[in-house]
Specification:
The protein has 23 residues and is an all-alpha fold. The protein is built from one helix and no strands.
Length: 23
């Protein structure tokens, strides 16, 4: 389940056009 949460967060960041520094 935690993987799904991370994927959703990364997807949201991707949609907004910003990526986390600590990927």
């Amino acid at each position: 389940m935690i993987n799904v949460i991370i994927i959703k967060k990364l997807y949201k960041l991707w949609r907004t056009g910003t990526w986390p520094i600590d990927l």
